[in-house]
């Protein structure tokens, strides 16, 4: 499957209109742009990414937040956080497959982030995929105001 020029234009126009479009194996997924809380949590995670000092390959570690990636099957994805083993070429759409991805999971993105994304990223050659979602503490009569950092899931080849 090859993306047409109109599909690529649609992808770019959606971003300008404040909507995230992803094409996964020919299936479109639309989402609103992430909110402040989502991005704050994501930035904290990105700041904690470090190369593995025990890695045999030298431990290159390049992280990118919310960038467009064109995968070998022509899918267009925008992982919340992509981690690359080497620096990708700087172009509109990155073509280097990330070593790992992190997705902040919300109610609206649950199906895509928990069911569709992990097998997709692993099939494309990624080493791991993690999804994180806020979990509520029950100490307060207003649980929506007291979130613990995250509940995590992970998939990987190791």
UniProtKB/TrEMBL annotation:
InterPro entries tied to this protein: Nuclease_put_TT1808, Restrct_endonuc-II-like, Uma2
Pfam (any one): Uma2
CDD domains linked: DUF820-like
Segments forming domain Putative restriction endonuclease: 9-125
Record-given protein name: Putative restriction endonuclease domain-containing protein
Species this chain originates from: Fimbriimonas ginsengisoli Gsoil 348
Lineage: Bacteria, Bacillati, Armatimonadota, Fimbriimonadia, Fimbriimonadales
